[in-house]
Amino acid sequence: MTEEKAKPVNFIEKIINEDLASGKHSNIVTRFPPEPNGYLHIGHAKSICLNFGLAQQFAGQCNLRFDDTNPEKEEDEYVQSIQDDVRWLGFQWAGDIHYTSDYFDQLHAWAIDLIKAGKAYVCDLSAEQAKEYRGNFETPGKNSPFRDRSVEENLELFEKMRAGEFDEGACGLRVKIDMASPNMSMRDPYIYRIKKATHHQTGDKWCIYPSYDFAHGQSDAIEGITHSVCTLEFADHRPLYEWFIANLETPAEPHQYEFGRLNINYTVTSKRKLRALVEGKVVNGWDDPRMPTISGMRRRGYTPSAIRNFCDSLAVAKTDGTVDVAQLEFFIRDDLNQNAPRAMCVINPLKVVITNMAADHDETLTVPFLQDREELGSREMPFTNEIFIDQDDFKEEYSKKFKKKFCVGKRIRLRHGYVIQADGFEKDEQGNITQVNATLIENTLGCDPEDGDKPKGVVHWVSCKHAVEAELRMYSRLFTDANPDGGKKDFMECLNPESLVVKTGLIEPALASVAPETGFQFEREGYYVADRFDHSSDKPVFNLTIGLREDKSLNS
RNA sequence: AGGGGUGUAGCCAAGCGGUAAGGCAACGGGUUUUGAUCCCGUCAUGCGUAGGUUCGAAUCCUGCCACCCCUGCCA
Q: CA separation (Å) from A442 to A382, A388, A437?
């Protein structure tokens, strides 16, 4: 037995191991806390795989919590899509779905505790004034003139805020920490602000909402989260997170750990930019197959296991690097290669007439969907005297480079079928080859020609009479620049004009009736998937998931 | 400028004082009824940089450099 090298233990696993060994925790609880203000993308997939994966690995649990503290940006559409995406990826959260808004009453009570303890105050500074008072990196801030209001006054004002007696922005509740802190997030951060907006969960019950900082750690505490994992940009907030846990009577003391978010070249993963692509109609919605959203990748034909394998291949560390999209593509191909049924589709048809076969010959070949995977079954392929092969597979003149191609005097194997030999071809006035005439070599189904003249190449084909037209949506990368997210240029200016090319392909008849979202490898062409929404047997539509790897030595 | 974080190959990384794992990419070669897959091989005298400690340093110490994040009543 060759032992597989153990996967390195990442720093979060190390911490968990220590916490388990020391008895600090007897079981671990993580959470995936998206804000329902957009669709999940590949970066979230990494976080989902990490948080749910940690729970599985340590036999703990992972909660799904919607971090919904800002009613102006959040919508039900997103809470639905996020649930669908998490489940589709193959994960199930523990128990019911949680919402930060479930804890608004408790959070409100804690805010009052802070006021009573003299640790929070209602500040009437305008947003602009607050910014001035905050100072900047080299200048300490100044205390707000409202910082020393009495507990009674603060209680009364906060209650008025809650009751809707003030306009938005008129005031806010701040926590009294340190206006001179070098950490800007500790300069008396706001913990409650007025927003007279209807909340997707709590409706019009509240007109004041807790800030992310005031809600997150306490929500973790309420849910008994042991390891609260977030991305690097929150590292500066950790002291604040800890301040609330230390200054409030919380049921537990969760800890926050930060890891580097996933970046991939040739794509963008900021909600703002993804939204711009959707709203600018650059793509057809959040689930356009060119989008790095989970629903987009799904529609593209990426599989949950391929995405999970990719995420598991990524390091959980504190470096913020950019992963080459080729690494993602590797895992897509790897999964599809092992599991996708094979089928045939001719994209640029060239008719081949087999002259030694009767015009009414109609043979049915039973072909397995995937060699060595009998459970995937087989389909029937009609074989007749007129078939289509791809134009690129026939060459007028033989050359070393085309040793595997079809040309006059040479033989070729029809995949899963017979060997044929080209005798001649016809051209139109423009010089395009319009037809190849060939003869079938007898007794070559499943075996080599008896005369020992083995064909060098194999081609995919489809019976002219039986082929079905299918719309092929051929997708490729959305951006031509490796770093569309980079500062210099506008990401909208590096769009790939050929990210979607629509063609018509001729598929074997068995493919027309396939269910939406069924993925195939169209042999020698690439991986395709029946479109989740537009495919039907009346009008087959297949999306290009990803091409096959190409032998680069042939491109010279 | 203050604070937080990070620098190991083209990319992602392991390594935690004993002489540079692994994956992707790339490049050779073999097999093949998919020019796919699969198999085999090559790919850092070097760990941001300059010093220091040590028998021995990517690992410890000091200085310097580069990059990312932070001045929302966003998350």
A: 17, 20, 16
* Distance, CA of A126 to CA of A369 (rounded, Å): 67
Instruction: Indicate whether this model's pTM tops 0.90.
Output: yes
Q: What is the rounded average pLDDT for all residues in chain A?
A: 96
Place of tokens 């779905």: A97
> Which residue has 């195939």 as its token pair?
A520
Alpha helices in A353-434 (DSSP H): none
What is the DSSP secondary structure assignment for residue A489, as one 8-state letter? S
Look at residues A463, A517, A436 and name the one whose alpha carbon lies nearest to residue A346.
A463
Report which of residues 49-78 in chain A place their beta carbon less than 7 angstroms from any atom of strand B.
Answer: 67, 69-70, 73
What CA–CA distance (Å, rounded) separates A326 from A497?
21
Q: Is any atom of nucleic acid chain B found less than 7 Å from the CB of residue A486?
A: no
Q: Is the pLDDT of residue A210 over 60?
A: yes
Structure tokens given for A383: 């074989």
- Asked if the Cβ of residue A197 lies within 7 A of any atom of strand B, the reply is no
Q: How confident is residue A60, by pLDDT bands cut at 50, 70 and 90?
A: very high
Tokens standing for residue A221: 């505490």
ipTM over 0.95? The verdict is yes
Q: Are A39 and A45 in contact (CB under 8 A)?
A: no
What phi and psi values does residue A147 have, to the nearest 5 degrees? -65, -25
Q: Are strands A526-530 and A462-463 parallel, antiparallel or unpaired?
A: unpaired
Kindly state the helix (H) or strand (E) to which residue A104 belongs, with its residue range.
helix A104-116
The residues of A carrying an active-site annotation are 35, 261, 271
Residue-level pLDDT at A347: 98
The predicted-structure confidence for A337-374, as pLDDT tens digits, reads as follows: 999 999 999 999 999 999 999 999 999 999 999 998 99
Give, in degrees to the nearest 5, the angle at Cα A148 between A142 and A149. 135
